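User: Could you write out the 3D structure of this protein bound to flavin-adenine dinucleotide? I've included everything you need below.
Assistant: Certainly. Input first, then the structure.
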Amino acid sequence: MSNTLDKIAEVPQRLITPETLPTLILGGGFTGLFTALHLSRQHYTTPTILIDRDWSFIFKPLLYEVLSGEMNMQFISHRYDALLHKSGITFIRDNVQSIDLQQRKVSLASGLHYTYSNLVLSLGGVVSYSGVKGAKEYTVPFSTIEDAMTLGKQLRDCLQRATQSETLQQKKILLTFVILGAGRTGVELTATLADLLPDWYDSLGGEISDIRILLIQRGKKILKGDDDHLRQTAEDALHKRSVSVKVMLETTVTEVRPNIIVIKRNDQVEEITAATIIWTTGIVTNPLIDTLSIPEGGRDRQGRLKLTDTLELIDFPEVFAGGDCAVMEHPLPLTAQVAYQQGAAIAHNLQALSEGHSPIAAEIEMRGTLMKLGMNESVAKIFDRYEVQGHLGHLIRQAAYIELLPTLASNFKGTLEWISDELFQRCVGV
Ligand SMILES: Cc1cc2nc3c(=O)[nH]c(=O)nc-3n(C[C@H](O)[C@H](O)[C@H](O)COP(=O)(O)OP(=O)(O)OC[C@H]3O[C@@H](n4cnc5c(N)ncnc54)[C@H](O)[C@@H]3O)c2cc1C
């Protein structure tokens, strides 16, 4: 009984701020964009502003396709002004510089300031180099569209130069590709490269057996956090690519220098020479989240914001958060499918508050895993029960992502259904 009364008592407190103050959404990734789209669909009447430092939303799960040339950039990159056209949501392209939760004030790099009634923190994460000396300077990250373009250029450059290298040693360095981190991104990227690089090198007249691909992981297994069956499927896939992948487990990177990576394994220090060293590990919370003045206990050990089950900050009920910068009581993987469902739940609760109702607990379903395991090969694990591999898995992933992408840009309703219920219904129906 007292719980119910507490909840009712909370509602007026949230509505103290004058209605004219906007709801601000900081970050237009999976959480922020889907919050905005759902608010629009719900005809949310509070003025709403979405702020992102980029002009376009990037569909990160398909970055591999941009790298490999399987897909054009325009399929995975969608301008916010087009996506939000006639949605009633204002888009501001700017860099968020500071957030003052106590004063309810957000400042942007351009000098603009906003005071808000409600705030949505959806700023995602950033790459961390975990203090490894030289990692930032001498490795290539793989997290943004710019990273994918830079890496593609670097790979082609190495292959081309290898065809005319003057010494065997130089050729070996140019044809050695090291991927650091065997989480999902590391594994998907490695599998893609193990098909792509031989294909490109063959077309340059090179000998594909000269290519070496190393996947380095500090832990005892790849895909930590995934189930053994999926892990086995991924390991099998890595071994049967066009060039074999050497997986080095329990190997710690201690330093990176130009064309050299220093590793430690079995208490031995070794050096590997490679012209391409790719960093796929260590996503940490956006630095802006670290600057927030939040009472002790408001963050987890990684610095992510702890949320109530309604996706609000414990000490700031007018502030919602989701995606890679936040953590629920039962932590969920840092994935797009979690982030976009949280976006929908945040929109629902903002609407509830604006109508004087209490917010409700967010229910996030883990609906499946789609992983690219090479060119034209994927695994689709649906509702953690059915696993479809190989070309059929690839077709499911294609259907899920690619075929629905054009709808994203052209059809507002389609946008909401995209990768959500419709997608996973389709997968189950295959
Ligand atoms: C290569 C790669 C492959 C992936 N594959 C998959 C997959 O297959 N399946 C899956 O479920 N997940 C996948 N993920 C993870 C998924 O993309 C993330 O979990 C998801 O994007 C998190 O959503 P988010 O809203 O928290 O953050 P993001 O989507 O990262 O969005 C954060 C937004 O905040 C903006 N921003 C950040 N700082 C500022 C600032 N200071 N000012 C203004 N704007 C700012 C950014 O521009 C960005 O648009 C992949 C990630 C990567 C990198």
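Residues 285 and 303 are 6 Å apart (CA to CA).
User: Perfect, thank you.
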